[in-house]
Amino acid sequence: MRRGRGSLLAYKVILSEADIHRVLDRIAHQILEKTQGASDVVLLGVATRGVPLAHRLAERINAFEQVKLPVGTLDITLYRDDLARQSIRAVGRTELPSGGIDGCQVILVDDVLYSGRTVRAALDAISDLGRPAAVQLAVLVDRGHRQLPIRADYVGKNIPTSLAEQVKVLLSEVDGVDEVRLATSGASAEPSGAQSGSVQ
Amino acid sequence: MIKHLLSAADLDAVTATQIHDIAAEMATVAGREVKKLPTLRGRTVVNLFYEDSTRTRTSFEVAAKRLSADVVNFSAKGSSVEKGESLKDTAWTLQAMGADAVVIRHPASGAPHRLTHWVHGSVLNAGDGTHEHPTQALLDTYTMRSRMGKVEGLNVAIVGDVLHSRVARSNALLLHTLGAKVTLVGPPTLVPPAFGSLTPSLGVSYDFDSVLPHADVVMMLRVQKERMNAAFFPSSQEYYKRYGLDSARLRRMPDHAIVMHPGPMNRGVEIAPEVADSPRSTIVEQVANGVSVRMACLYLLLGGRS
Q: Whole-model pTM?
């Protein structure tokens, strides 16, 4: 167990920086294999941390196969089903690649798969934005506890958790460090000053 | 977060900028094939209009519908109001019907404020008497930001019937909050010196031509014929000559300066047709931006737990 920065709260590191690199390499290869060369594939990162993950996957796929995949950003705030129960949330950017997503294989990329409600909201958003040929899901961590019949096509690491635990993905682009942390009940995996993640 | 939107003075710079940012995202919905978001599904928005205003009512209606809210239009004309029902009783009726937000336009200044005491939902002021029209100020400043890249530091001339204009009042307040310099321009009968104390940095001028070369934004106001119950100026020709924006005056403005008008326009009274239709005019943009800004306001007032 380690101590969180600036706090006395304890957490365990589940994936280190090197682990995250290896996991993303593997997912990139799996995407190439499953999509048979990744032609007509679009990566859509779910804000916030899905976006840098999508860009990293695109870089790796380009390095492995010299295929430049378009990357977009999807903010699902306006599609959430718990808006009325939460305090107001800032709306982020949604930006599709210039070619759009019609007829493409869209790969949604997010950091943590939890209840499945974020993915459901993302699927609703995608159906308003165009008509892809197929939608797949890539996540860095699957922590279980699904509330909807949703599963990921590409999983970096399955982490069986209890409901009392928190999984926090930190990425250098957003948080200045690459790490996946698991905090136990009463503790927090939050880095000091970081925003709380969405319901996943 | 704010519960009601009654006055531009209630908005601080952070909140107004947040509304602008959200409006920019909402604007992308207008370009989509499916111009709809599920955000306010199951919420009811009532448009309570005691004055005719097709433009503002439609703008609020489109904004609410794009967010999937149910919209009820309640017009005073031909309704229980004509049968003598008071605002308070109407409010209780709306409350009983489960209105989550009431968008109100009323000829009496302060009516939206009264309404907040009688309904549980949010109240949005869509124009009260000669008092305020905060969403117009938000959409105008949003339009300035879109065209000029910023609002802070702009020189804005608001020209015409300031006395009767809730648009002028709300704009002066919000522009001050956002760091712009405002000069009110018009005949002394329509721009009383007392208006100069509305905000600390407000200027008042009766000479349009001296203001033009320094203006980044020239906002023309409609000459409100329906409120001209006194001799505020000799004739509309005389007014046009001194305060109308024609091509010659447009040429005296800096090259980057834009022309705004909240509509509806009186072509040939306060603005020349060729100026209204010029690329420097933002009049059509203002209408489109109105929907985006009202979507942002409805989201902020209704999108979260109150």
A: 0.91
